């Protein structure tokens, strides 16, 4: 039996499985998905077993054996190993990168150089060495070192050097002469947490006997034995110490006498251990919920791989449908994965799932510590849970019988990972569900155009996009070749209990200006805020920008403060009175005079959340504002803290960036204001209108979700834009029609698919030459695909033309259908691999990009 192993080196040359022997002793332990240590050239590396077989590519006699199996259970399931191959082919990354993305960060290997006693010291004890005479006599210090290392078994080289300071060169010499041996160990970054636990070793009566026999002066020890006699259960050492107010040596003394034992016991770090979640029972479904639930549960019961797109207006009760569908799945003995966008994974969301399914739920998000995340993941692997709710990467939860995958707020662009592997969790979820015969539910009040397009019958899609195929479905690659599925549309048009959607007002800010209102609050919004404060109702204000102001500009000469390393203007931060670059972190002091013309008329422009907060304080004295943006939520738990304060009505206003727009369900919120609806609309991105419509609909949806009716104000300089008008009328259909027309006209997704290639280098000439070489090669390769329509745009400078002192050029590929364009792009990029290596050119390829900057 041989194992194919993919090693921990993300490079082109190592992007394949290498064969290794499985030593007899490890047979039982090696499986597909095992993490192993293998010799690789002079090094020892971590790798994943991706195949077991009995026909090696090379002479079996020359194969090396696997050195170690690193886990008790393989951290990856065979289906995940297969999925990794699909991810690497679809999104053009190394397979090891895809595999690594599937295991928690705690399992990423840490390579340590250790020292052992070398085999030159053949007979073990140095006494023999001396008598044999053929060895050079060891110096006493050398003997000390060898004895020390022998005692440790093996020791990290740094620790050895710090023990024997100033013996560095001697130790090096001993390694060269073979008295010491250097080995490489693979350690996990994190391991299961263990605590010392005290175990009684006998029955209570015996313990009491022992207590009796102890001399009178050992009062404390007697106390411990009597305590254990009374409650004869294992107890954490630290708990025992604090309970009896004794020292560890007391307990240790008893252990030495054999009256009790102290062992290390593995415990799980549970971020929610201190919280209790009141159990909830299924609600009686509304007729609309009933219909939707019926379709989903039927598919789950029939174990059919189907994809539903659930379009339900804000407050229509999608979560309850998810919960009951998951119950159906669990009743089947299968497992469920729920994905939510990182920022809407609020305590409220967790509570809904833990409240219904209790300890069966694991939670995975980035605000957990690495250790907590590792332990949540272990609960999944050890089958202690059967539901996981988490952000993007939870799609890789190591379940083995997935029955249902739910993606809430499926339109969210954060489901696309921006670093390699640049996967889209929505598309990966469909691939994974296909492997398991599982059902996918994509839920949103504002479904993405891609998903909506996926619901159209083939004929209609053809009509719109002539020969296009749905982009969001599974491509036929490798083992994952499955027939494409068409998405089935389910709709919920009403809020529960017939609550009305909020009334929306569009406010034309140009009019405000012309009538002399220079404030960032229109008169009508101002009045509405006053009204709610008086009624003790709550307000959500959205400003899609953080910081105090977007940029600093000189009114005399037009100078704008820009980052010296990136072509992007700096953002003013009020609290530190600094200008900061959001791309590289560069920071400088606020200037009081213009660096260009020395004028004093240099000001911050635009409005940031900090400035709104200040102005609210001035306009409404005594108003209690919670500001939530990246700057106020970096601390662990801060997100939770702010939302709890708001829920407990300890604030009147929740002001923030898009993180206040999603998923929140607060009964007292009756007013929502979008202060500058155009910020997103003005971005140079073909999805700007879609993002604007989604954001306004979502934030508006926070108002009036319970008994009290809601009202929304949208402040804008472009009140005639269809995304704003449609959002104000809750009219998804008319927005969709217009936007589909626009996308079709410009050959944008979902009618065409995109691949964005960004090249970067410190020098423009080399960069331009490389970009042109790349584009020319790609154009040549594309000819082979004719008549498949493929368009190659560029190279042009990227919208952000420089980041961290590296210039950036991009090419955009637009194509239709399922042709394997990605492969061609990779081939074209390969022609530059020498330049990449020699001159440090970087090429980044983004398949189905969400961010075009
Ligand atoms: N069948 C039901 N009977 C009574 N109340 C319900 C029912 N279903 C849901 N609700 C309540 O309605 C409110 C809105 O539901 P939920 O938050 O699930 O909406 P949603 O569709 O997820 O909205 P959004 O897209 O805005 O997040 C919640 O307070 C929920 O408890
Ligand atoms: Zn100036
Ligand atoms: Zn910068």
UniProtKB/TrEMBL annotation:
Chain residues that bind Zn(2+) 1: 554, 557, 594, 597
Q: Where is the Helicase ATP-binding domain?
A: 299-465
- Coiled-coil spans in chain: none
All residue ranges annotated as the Helicase C-terminal domain in the record? 578-741
Pfam families cross-referenced by the UniProt entry: DEAD (PF00270), Helicase_C (PF00271), PriA_3primeBD (PF17764), PriA_C (PF18074), Zn_ribbon_PriA (PF18319)
EC identifiers of the protein: 5.6.2.4
The record, for InterPro entries, names:
DEAD/DEAH_box_helicase_dom, Helicase_ATP-bd, Helicase_C-like, P-loop_NTPase, PriA, PriA_3primeBD, PriA_3primeBD_sf, PriA_C
Residues that hold Zn(2+) 2 according to the record: 563, 566, 581, 584
The UniProt catalytic activity note for this protein reads: Couples ATP hydrolysis with the unwinding of duplex DNA by translocating in the 3'-5' direction; ATP + H2O = ADP + phosphate + H(+)
UniProt KW keywords: ATP-binding, DNA replication, DNA-binding, Helicase, Hydrolase, Isomerase, Metal-binding, Nucleotide-binding, Primosome, Zinc
Group of enzyme by EC: isomerase
Which cofactors must be present for this protein to function?
Answer: Zn(2+)
Cofactor mode of binding and number, as noted = Binds 2 zinc ions per subunit.
Family assignment? Belongs to the helicase family. PriA subfamily.
Give the protein's biological function: Initiates the restart of stalled replication forks, which reloads the replicative helicase on sites other than the origin of replication. Recognizes and binds to abandoned replication forks and remodels them to uncover a helicase loading site. Promotes assembly of the primosome at these replication forks.
Assembly and partners?
Component of the replication restart primosome.
HAMAP family for this protein: PriA
Q: What protein name applies here?
A: Replication restart protein PriA
Give me the gene this protein comes from: priA
